[in-house]
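quick q for whoever's on today - can somebody do inverse folding on this one?? i tried earlier but teh output was garbage lol. tokens:
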């Protein structure tokens, strides 16, 4: 009986260890595109529109593309990644 319990406990410990190993692996960020929606939350419809500039930086820190837009009060604009003309597999950041 003691051998059976020991065998079951060791087996359960091994199963838990094997299940936990993938949790310690490096994450895979995958691929994707990110669209950014900018909103002007000023409630005064008579207020001046906001001037918004999106600058796209590569991983080396150099600006590769920028886009200027005017956003009226209570309005929004969608900066689409596909419209940025950066090409496939571009890697970097966008700063507003």
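ok took a stab at it. sequence:
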């Amino acid at each position: 009986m003691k051998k059976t319990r020991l065998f079951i406990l060791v087996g359960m410990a091994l199963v838990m260890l094997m299940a936990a190993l993938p949790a310690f692996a490096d994450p895979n960020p995958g691929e994707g595109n990110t669209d950014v929606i900018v909103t002007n939350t000023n409630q005064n419809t008579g207020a001046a529109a906001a001037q918004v500039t999106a600058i796209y930086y590569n991983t080396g820190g150099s600006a590769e593309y920028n886009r200027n837009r005017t956003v009226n009060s209570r309005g929004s604009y969608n900066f689409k990644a596909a419209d940025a003309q950066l090409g496939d597999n571009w890697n970097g950041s966008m700063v507003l």
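fwiw The first helix runs from residue 2 to 20. also The longest strand covers residues 50-58. so keep that in mind when u check it
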